């Protein structure tokens, strides 16, 4: 019995009622549309974003290669260099590109290493230095986080648009009630005995 009352209460805007206004029906459609977009659109946006991120990470793993390199200068102790990050510091290195040409550039290496130390760097297809691609587990976590962020962003935007629509409908209702009260209000001003 209580469930049927609750159902009637939730769906009152859809039922025929002499007090139901056009704005009430519009509001019901706005709420339904907002929930549909949030649930279906948010899920779809999250899934597609996570899938696209997984493909990008897979492409990075396929394209990037680890290459042996040699430090050209010693790596200062962590935190002492101008371009240090945590326990890593920026140092000049030399490596061989896929076409066989020697190249030099700067990359982050563990601090405290001496010149001439062999290290491993990551390069792209053209032989330029790049960052290490994420492992499959790291890629899955990051893709999941990006998918969740996309779903929440779409849902938040949709909710905001829905709230703005309901605010506009509420303003219309209040204005309409005000106009109707100016017509009916004076008739209630006299006393009855």
Account of the 3D structure:
It contains 3 helices and 6 strands, in the order ααββββββα. With 193 residues, it is α+β, with helices and mostly antiparallel strands. The protein has a domain at 65-131. α2 runs antiparallel to α3 (136-184). The longest helix is centred in the C-terminal third of the chain and has 49 residues, at 136-184. It is rod-shaped. The chain crosses the membrane at residues 25-48. InterPro entries: MT1774/Rv1733c-like. Residues 69-92 are annotated as: Disordered.
Write the layout of secondary structure elements.
Elements: H1 2-10, H2 22-63, E1 65-71, E2 84-85, E3 88-96, E4 102-110, E5 118-123, E6 129-130, H3 136-184
Antiparallel strand pairs: 1-3, 1-5, 2-3, 3-4, 5-6
Helix pairs in contact: 2-3
